[in-house]
Amino acid sequence: MAVKTRQDYLNSLKAMRPNIHKFGKVIEDVTTDPATKRTVESHARAFDASNDPQYAEDFTMVSSFTGEKIHRWNGMMSTLEEIMANSKLKRWMYRFNGSCNGGVCVGWNAQNVMWNVAAMIDKDCGTHYQERLKNWILAAQAKGLVVAGALTDAKGDRSMRPSQQANPDANLRIKEVKADGIVISGVKAMICGVAASNEIFLLPGSGYREEDQDYALTCVVPKDIQGLTIVETRRPSDSRELEKGWDIPETGITQAYLIFQDCFVPNERVFMCKEFKYTGKIIEYFTANYRACIGACVAGQGDVMIGAGALMARVNGLAASTFAGKMVEMAVNNETTYAMGIGAMALGKKGPGGMWVADSLQAHANKVHVATLPYETKRLCQDIGGGIVETGCFPSYEDFKNPDYGPLVEKAVKACEKYSGESRARAARLSEWLTLGGGVPGCMHGGGSPDGAKLVVRALTPVDQFAEYARKIAGITEEIPEPEKKKK
């Protein structure tokens, strides 16, 4: 059976070699350690939804390769409907968890992007990358794998290309090519959902030139591959993750540095090896799809922020309708990013291998909105919640439960006679987490920077053509080209 259960998933993580570190120690079991159990719980809820008739349509699909029912995040996106399902799943996941779920997101996009690019390389170079990729996808579908995706490198000096760095491992590279595989070294940084994943899909972090060909690699590795050290990063709210009770939700996201030291990857898991000319296409296709779909991520979290605002109003003794105007603004922000992403998909087309690629101009324009509108939604959520949310200034869970003075704390925090002080505290902590803490999903730089998106928008906006439309409407008969640049 390709559709796995929550327990199947948890067992698969428990069976892996411990190689994740945080706070100076190795994490023996990611499913129970306080530093990682919340991101595992977030991803486990995708398996719950896959087996729930209410959500199964969005979380499962029929494999185009086998005709068997599989988890949607292991499937292909060859039609508009299939890539739209990507956005639907992401919005649901944020509604369930309030935060990012990289293991049922980035690897899914990566396998579809590489299906297109592998077709191009195979045609031009006589390689067999697509056949290898298909075999790996079939295995991922059968096992119901959760697959993180890693593009971002540590990078080093931003003024230099990878091959110019004093530290050659500042970017992930091919250190050696063998008859049966490749040896890789280097660092991928700030990668979401690694602790909750079974495998990691590695893609180049940029488009490369010939001198950077050693950095042109694509492959998939098990999370516990020999030679890989994973260091979970510390987020601003991580000091609370070791506390008890409801000071932090049961769900969450973690990010990691992936430090590869002479890791051997067999050929069957390698889908690009030094074909640098195609790295630009990987970035083009990946960012188009990812920046279209991320509009659903922030929309889903925005839905939860509307709900959190409503809860705060009610536990404060007010009707949620008191803040209807603010909630409408929040809803408009949510639907703007969601709809722009869907629009980018609708304007897209099939790539060279038959998988769907969203329209780049619309997708990158959406990324600019993703980097702005959610912050306004967060501000409104704080505004509705009041000072207890924005300042986070109230006692902790352990103070509430203290046998000596806990009842006094409960009485002090309680506002409305209908609801307990604990309910008000839980609602406030959620709003705080969503707007200030670990629930912030990387709106600004997740999936790339807004400045980078603006560069794409600038490149794809035909200003001269638009000027011609305007010239003709105005009845101007003389040509009015862009002035030549003055020589210095």
Question: Can you give a write-up of this model?
Answer:
This protein is an alpha+beta fold and 488 residues long. The protein has two domains: 6-280, Butyryl-CoA Dehydrogenase, subunit A, domain 2 (Beta Barrel); 287-460, Up-down Bundle (Butyryl-CoA Dehydrogenase, subunit A, domain 3), CATH 1.20.140.10. The chain is 45% helix and 14% strand. The protein is built from 16 helices and 14 strands. Strands 2-1-10-11-7-6 form a six-stranded mixed β-sheet, with no helix packed on it. The protein has a four-stranded mixed β-sheet with strand order 5-8-9-12. Strands 3-4 form a two-stranded antiparallel sheet. A hairpin with a 5-residue loop joins strand 13 and strand 14.
- Tell me about the biggest sheet? 6 strands, mixed
Order of helices and strands: HEEHHEEHHHEEEEEEEEHHEEHHHHHHHH
Q: How many DSSP E strands?
A: 14
The overall pLDDT, averaged over residues, is 94
Quaternary status: single chain
Tally the helices: what do you get?
Answer: 16
Instruction: Using the alpha-carbon principal axes, give the shape.
Output: globular
| Sheet with the most strands: spatial strand order | 2-1-10-11-7-6
Distance between the termini: 69 Å
**Which class of secondary structure composition applies to the elements?**
alpha+beta
Summarize the amount of helix as a percent range. 40-55%
Which fold name corresponds to the CATH topology of the largest domain?
Butyryl-CoA Dehydrogenase, subunit A, domain 2
CATH hierarchy, class of the largest domain: Mainly Beta
Number of domains: 2
* CATH homologous superfamily placement of the largest domain: Butyryl-CoA Dehydrogenase, subunit A, domain 2
In the CATH hierarchy, what is the architecture of the largest domain at level 2?
Beta Barrel
Radius of gyration, taken over Cα atoms and rounded to an integer in Å:
24 Å
Approximate strand percentage: 5-15%
Enumerate the spans where pLDDT stays under 50 for 5 or more consecutive residues: none
